[in-house]
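quick one, 84 residues, struct below
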Amino acid sequence: MRGAALIALAERGVPIYEYAPRRVKQAVVGKGAAAKQQVGFMIRAMLGLTENPPPDAADALAIGLTHIQAHESAGRGVVTLVRV
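---
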């Protein structure tokens, strides 16, 4: 997302979170140095898809799943969310 779009969202009070690529890969694949193909494969397996999504879609879904996991952890008292 471009900087101007992020600023516009922040000005309107939309929460913005940031996750490092290694953290996303760790959350989805189990290792932070996973290849893009591994991320796509795990997204396919986790979501019951019939084929691996395109790399950009797999990345977006992986970020979403990472965010869900972070919220679940925060609900259990584990500090994992950092709002930007």
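Helices lie at 3-11, 21-28, 36-47, 55-75.
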